[in-house]
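sorry for the late reply, my laptop died twice this morning and i had to redo everyting from scratch. anyway the thing you sent over, i finally got around to it. pasting the sequence first so we're on the same page, its 317 residues, then the predicted structure underneath. double check i copied it right bc i was rushing
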Amino acid sequence: MARLILDTNCFAYKNKYYQQKRGGAMGSAFTQVFANIYMLEWEKDLIEHQTSKHEIYGRYIDDIFMTMNEPFDELTKKLDEVQQKDVNIKIKPTIDGSVHFLDVTIKNENGQLKTSIYHKPTADPYFLPYTSDHPHRIHRNIPYTALVRAARLCSNLHDFHLERLRIDVSLLLNNYPPKLITNQFLRFFQVNKADILIKRFNEQTYKQLHRKLLYQPSKSEIEMKATKKDPVLFPPILQQKPWNPSVMYLRYQFESGPMSTFPQKFLTWWKKHYQFPGSPANRIQIRLIPKTNRTLQHFLIRKKPSRLILKGMEPKT
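ok and here's the structure:
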């Protein structure tokens, strides 16, 4: 199966077919899995070395983070040994007391690792603009989730407060109302039982908040864990399906302006005309799902070749 996929990796460009002879498409699910399997074999010596020295080693796709207390010469020697395993894998090490790994800055302060959010110097303070044509709940959740990310990645209270100020200013620059920002910030501290941090610095309270959110599994992590269950012990056919027959999901085209009140008006109409005494509709809950309008990406970016190219059809004259 792997050979079939790698040998038939084709793409279209300017109305012509091409076959990729080397490597694989980064967007392919198989390529990512295959690359991770290969990299696990490649990095096995590094993992064993770090484990024997009680040091840290972590990799995400093509970024590696590791700690070492050995002399600089020993470190470069070890990296050179690994480099010889495959000349196609180039290692560009950054060795310092402070390094960037993905979206985190990691500092070594007296033997203790300190983390904060890394911002690229060229990055703009951008959030989804408040004037964009999206349901209000999406804009409402952005300040909250931004604080969750800050609390997870900032290991000390000072960096968290700096990040909170950055988030506040960035939201204001993207036309978010100050009252909405204040309310969502307050909701974050109340939900996570850290109200004391609103009024004064309390390092102990923040450490508890940081640990709680850091080890709290995300939605994608929960879904990934579910896929790793033994199918013999947990047969999918016996698991309870998330479908609820008493809930009806209705999609509607979202538009800002007068149409933004459509959900409230629809629910009022539903209760008035259908949920009368003795009606079977009383047992049904309505969930309205907004469908956002098409963006410029939909009109300007074409990921799939036209139907004529895929089917080898001659254009009609």
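The longest helix spans residues 136-153.
thats about all i looked at so far, will dig more tmrw
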